[in-house]
Amino acid sequence: xxxxxxxxxxxxxxxxxxxxxxxxxxxxxxxxxxxxxxxxxxxxxxxxxxxxxxxxxxxxx
Length: 61
Fold this sequence. Notes:
Elements: H1 2-17, H2 35-59
């Protein structure tokens, strides 16, 4: 489980750090710290996943 959290955390950090403007504070581990901030990270991650799924569905048609 710990390895899974680390992979998710690295993925979220990569996603968030790829943007030029970032509304979130830099944090090495989204599983530590403010719970509301953690929820914001997850919301962004889920939205990015849904966007990617929608885009990949359109490109396969």
